[in-house]
Structures are given as C-alpha cells and as structure tokens.
Amino acid sequence: MSITTLSTINEQLLKSIGVGIAIVRFSDLHFYYHNKAFAEWFGDPASSDVVTEIVDRLREDARTALQDTGRFTTEVQVKPKRRTLVIALTANLAEFEGESVVVVECQNITRMRELEQMIESYSNMVERNTRELEREKERVEKLLLNLMPRSVYEEFKTFGVVTPQLYRNVSVLMLDFVGFTSFAENTDPTVTLGELNDMFTAFDRISEQFGCERIKTIGDAYLAVSGMPEPAPDHASAVANCAVRFIRYLERRNQSHQHKWQARIGLATGTAVGSVVGVQKYVYDVFGPAVNMAARLQVFAQPMKIVAPVDMKFDLIDAFRVTEIGSYDIKGLGQVELVNVEGNLTLAN
Amino acid sequence: MAHLGYDGMAGTTFEKYGGFGIVSKVVMTFYEMVLDSDIVGHHFDHVDMPRLIDHQTKFISSLMGGPASISDERLRAVHAHFDITDAEFDEIVSLLGMALEEHRMDADDIDALARAIDAKRSLIVKRAVA
C-alpha cells in the first residue's frame, strides 16, 4: 500500500468517523481542519455563530489548562435541531511543523445524559412511591396497634400467628357504668356514644400513663390489664392507680356535665391468657381467673367504689387506703375476702 | 389493560413487558420521534432536555401502570397554554403507537393504551368552544 493510499484512508476515516475532530492553531484559534461530524453538531467554524460563541466562552480556561497540562476537557450543549445535544470536548496540545496546534476531539454523549436524566426521573418516582407505601404501612400498623399490644403485633407480623400466652402475674381492672342501659334507652344513640367515647378516651390516657393496657370495651364495660404482655412488677398498684383516677375523673366530670355517671370497678390479680382471637377480624383478648374475678367484683362493687380481693392488699397498702370489708360469697368464686381501695392522701393530683 | 393512575403494579402492561426496561426504551424512542415530528415538534422547541425526559418518563410509566400517576387536573394544567389541536393529539397517539410497536408490544395492548389516552383527550386538546 502506498503512502498516498494510506493518507487517503486516514482522511476518509477522519471524515466519516462518529467523533468530531477539529485542528486549531493555538496562537489565534484559527481552524485548520474540521470533519463532518464536527460540522453537523457545530456548523462550519468559518461561519458558525455557535462555534464563535463556544470559542469565546471557553478561550481563557482552555488556554490556561492547555499551557499548564497540555489538555483541556469540558462539556458543551448545542441544539442544531430540536434535540439538545451534549458534546464532550477534549483538547490536546500538539506540535506540528514547529507550530502549536490544538487537536479537539468531540464525543456525542447525548444519549448517556438523556438516560441519566431518565433514570433520575424514574428513581424519584420510585422513591416517592416507596415513601407513600411506608406511610401506608405506618397507618396500617397504627390501626393494628389499636387492636393488640405492640409485642403481640410484633409476633403477629413476624410469624403471622399469635401463640396464646399464659401470664402468671397480672392484674386486671374491670369497670362498668351504673344505669347505662336505661340511659342508652332514653337517649339519642349518638349522645350515648359521645359520652362513652369521651370517658373511654380519658380512661385510655390514664391507663397509658400508669402502665396499664386497655384490652377492650364491651358496651359500657372497660377492661384494662397490667403485667401482660410485658411483665410489670407493680401490676397491682398500676391497676389500682388507674381505678382511683378513673373514679376521680368521673367525680370531676360530673361537676360540669349534665349526666352524672357512676361506675363500679373490680380489681383482681392472678393468671390470665392473652391471644389474638379470630382470623379475619383480629381481636386481642384476655381470659382467665384474674379476668373472671375482676368482672365479678365489679358487679359486686357499690357505685363509685373499687373492690379488690384481699390478696392484693399488701401490694397496695403503701400507696392506697385499703379497707377490709369482710368475706362475701361471690358467684362462681365462692367465699372471697374483699377490700375497698381508695386513693390516699399522698396521691398526687 | 390501560392505566393512567397508579393503583399497584400487579397485572399491568408495565409488569408484563418487564418494568423499567421497557419504559426506558419506549421513552427514548418516543422522545426522538416527538422531537422529529413536523406536527408536534415545535411544542418542544423551548423545553429543555431534562424537563422533557422527566415528563415523558412519568407519562410512559403512568400509562403502563408503573410507579407514577398523573392526575386529570395536572394533565389539564400542564397542557393548557399549548393550544393543542386534535391533529396534534392524534399525532402523539400515533407516534406512541409506533414507539410501542418498535419495542414489540402486542397490538391489543397498544390499542388499550391508545384508548386510555384518548379518554383524556378533552383534558389536553384546546376547544374553540367548550
């Protein structure tokens, strides 16, 4: 192959290659040569405003970089048609026949930038979606936490089922309103519901504050426990604290409300089983001797009184006024020694 | 099935054709077609690349049932000042059909998507009289 043929091939290659090439004199930035790709993107350097604008903009930075390192790189955007092109420029300083020239190489990286932009756009969407799902999950979690204690929920979430657990040392509080049925019969149901909602919400706050967990309400009855599912050494005083404050709350409320509510409260200590009942409609519920006893004693209690078995006496005696009221025959339980529990003078308001 | 709102990805064209993979291909093809079009291209003369890509990625994703949704209100608002004609709207639907076809989507699915877009015509096309 002759030298002439080789240089013809080189020339053809420079013309047809997908890379834009230009050769510029370093001293005055006169364009010696440019290929087809270069002209397609920027226009003919002799007449193109685009080239003039880019040269003017980059001149100082390029000159400094070329003098210091012999190399200058940057990215420029051009819009020969509607599509914005992103061109990566690399300029290298070279010596040719005793003169400094700059060889400019231009790569079209438009597609890469477009893809990057699309990925960014897409990942923003996915992230926003993920955040929405997260929020939705939190809403569901919050709802389920209203139906069962957190530790039970964690078990349910991990295993899909909840194993019934026997708790040996729990205390139970059962509250019921006096004369609720007749009130409900003679009152607009929305008013009844409003009254219950108001009082139960207050009870929930008190329960939470004193380490009790409300398990459920059944009509006008309110059932709370302490010592399950998390063990609590002071479960007896926890329920007593709630009971005393429930009564006090009602007394205060009665001073300013039209209907004067009176409640009976039964307390008990002992064993109970806790579990989620149901498959589709999950309800966390408790069963067992302590629950039965609290329910029976609540029925036995005088209005606005708290009744507990005598075995709770020593757990409560330091913080409450505990009065023995004797032995009574309680339905289903036989003879039980009972006490009344009241708040004592050291109780904080 | 056609989707113009996000309601979970299960059973959508988005899932059927491979999620983001197909979205990215369709967006790239559609983007070029739209810019090259003599009928609608001029609407994009002054829209910069990142914005247009963002817009189309959301459009194609939501259309196929991917993780995006564009409300009717938004559709109406973003197109309001373009004075879009029925002919231009048809051109976009036709270009999209071609882009989807190029990436081997079934004719039935393309028809379903075209119908879904057509249902939004009144939000996008500017009418001389209401």
TrEMBL record, chain A:
<keyword id="KW-0456">Lyase</keyword>
<feature type="coiled-coil region">
    <location>
        <begin position="112"/>
        <end position="146"/>
    </location>
</feature>
<dbReference type="InterPro" id="IPR029787">
    <property type="entry name" value="Nucleotide_cyclase"/>
</dbReference>
<keyword id="KW-1133">Transmembrane helix</keyword>
<keyword id="KW-0472">Membrane</keyword>
<keyword id="KW-0175">Coiled coil</keyword>
<protein>
    <submittedName>
        <fullName>Adenylate/guanylate cyclase domain-containing protein</fullName>
    </submittedName>
</protein>
<feature type="domain" description="Guanylate cyclase">
    <location>
        <begin position="171"/>
        <end position="298"/>
    </location>
</feature>
<dbReference type="InterPro" id="IPR001054">
    <property type="entry name" value="A/G_cyclase"/>
</dbReference>
<dbReference type="Pfam" id="PF00211">
    <property type="entry name" value="Guanylate_cyc"/>
</dbReference>
<keyword id="KW-0547">Nucleotide-binding</keyword>
<dbReference type="InterPro" id="IPR050401">
    <property type="entry name" value="Cyclic_nucleotide_synthase"/>
</dbReference>
<keyword id="KW-0812">Transmembrane</keyword>
Automatic annotation (TrEMBL), chain B:
<dbReference type="Pfam" id="PF01152">
    <property type="entry name" value="Bac_globin"/>
</dbReference>
<keyword id="KW-0408">Iron</keyword>
<keyword id="KW-0349">Heme</keyword>
<dbReference type="InterPro" id="IPR009050">
    <property type="entry name" value="Globin-like_sf"/>
</dbReference>
<keyword id="KW-0479">Metal-binding</keyword>
<protein>
    <submittedName>
        <fullName>Group 1 truncated hemoglobin</fullName>
    </submittedName>
</protein>
<dbReference type="InterPro" id="IPR012292">
    <property type="entry name" value="Globin/Proto"/>
</dbReference>
<keyword id="KW-0813">Transport</keyword>
<dbReference type="InterPro" id="IPR001486">
    <property type="entry name" value="Hemoglobin_trunc"/>
</dbReference>
